[in-house]
Design a protein that fits this description.
By secondary structure, the chain is an alpha/beta fold. It is 24% helix and 28% strand. Bound molecules: beta-D-glucopyranose and zinc ion.
């Protein structure tokens, strides 16, 4: 079968022919991949700044945002049958499992020994077929198929928002999202669906296609900030400066979630956090509950807006997603099979 892999010896991203995976354990499910979404993580993996192949292999099949159809099941599989549409979760438990991995919260793995499909130590889904355990697959309602590839990034957002809302003691009313990529726009939609007054702030100028998507959803877009008014801030921009802007935008008792920022920010006054009772936290990956929330939320978002977020590319059209310049459309999705 055809696949897209990162070769860690030649340090190249390439198309490769691989043997089809087979059902091995009784709980295994064979899926035919329909499409794979690409995100900033894949672009960084392709620059070999992190990630590693499975033990014994020198290459890693890329892709962790996938939608597929069940084509075969092991004898112990009870909840899925051929024809069902599914989406794999990304993270797999550490071994032996820590307390959190053991209770199904691999997103909070305590040992750091977790693996992630298409990222750390396990092959991903940028291939025609993949095998997963029944418990690692999320069922996709057939009427969500066209936008289901957004469920994985949305699950990451759902977890961060649920955590932020829980931490905000007096009930948040105003929210600010920093960054107008797929994660930022999904965060804005999810906050709006919870009834918050939302704005998105990003570097793109106001007539950029991403800014237009935000406005098409009825959400304010701003190229620079007011400051000091947001009860919840979601940083989805990837830069240290965005984290600083986010924290500066917090109201008293505000909560800021960092989803992408890296580096050591300059210009953050820690005493401000203390005297204003503000919270800053980091969040990664998703819980089973946030996958369920993502499926529910996706079903109530405006389909026209979701359609504007996605552009589809051919199987190996990597210049237009991973290797080339960033597309104006937030989510590039490679069509693998129908
Ligand atoms: C994925 C997460 C994953 C994270 C870190 C993100 O792109 O959506 O599921 O945990 O990368 O590897
Ligand atoms: Zn991703």
């Amino acid at each position: 079968m055809k696949a897209v892999v990162l070769d860690f010896e030649s340090r190249r991203l390439e198309r490769r022919d691989l043997p089809e995976p087979r059902l091995e354990r009784a709980t295994d499910v064979l899926i035919r991949i329909r499409e794979v979404g690409v995100c900033g993580t894949d672009r960084e993996l392709a620059s070999f700044s992190f990630g590693y192949p499975p033990a014994g292999d020198s290459f890693l099949v890329l892709g962790h945002e996938a939608v597929g159809q069940v084509v075969g099941t092991g004898p112990a599989v009870t909840s899925l049958s051929p024809g069902d549409w599914v989406l794999p979760s990304v993270r797999r438990a550490c071994d032996p499992p820590c307390a959190n991995c053991a209770r199904g919260r691999r997103d909070l793995c305590l040992s750091g020994g977790y693996r992630e499909r298409g990222i750390y130590g396990l092959h991903g889904y940028f291939s025609e077929y993949a095998v997963d355990s029944e418990q690692d697959l999320v069922r996709v309602p057939a009427d969500l198929l066209e936008c289901a590839v957004l469920i994985e990034p949305l699950s990451v957002v759902e977890k961060a928002i649920a955590t932020a809302v829980r931490m905000h003691e007096s009930g948040p009313r105003r929210a600010l999202v920093i960054g107008a990529g797929a994660v930022g726009i999904l965060a804005a939609l999810a906050l709006q669906a919870r009834g918050l007054d939302v704005a998105v702030q990003s570097l793109e100028d106001p007539d950029h296609p991403r800014a237009r998507i935000v406005r098409a959803a009825g959400i304010r877009y701003q190229a620079s900030g007011g400051g000091g008014e947001a009860d919840i801030v979601i940083e989805a921009a990837g830069a240290a400066e965005a984290a600083v802007t986010g924290v500066r935008s917090l109201a008293r008792s505000g909560v800021c979630a960092l989803l992408g920022a890296k580096g050591a920010p300059a210009g953050m006054e820690l005493l401000d956090l203390i005297v204003k009772s503000q919270t800053v936290f980091g969040s990664v990956n998703a819980s089973p509950e946030s996958f369920r929330d993502a499926v529910i939320d996706l079903g109530r978002f405006d389909r026209r807006v979701l359609g504007m977020m996605i552009r589809r590319a051919g199987f190996g059209d990597l210049e237009h997603s991973i290797l080339g310049p960033l597309s104006d459309t937030p989510k590039t999705v490679h069509v693998v099979g129908e």
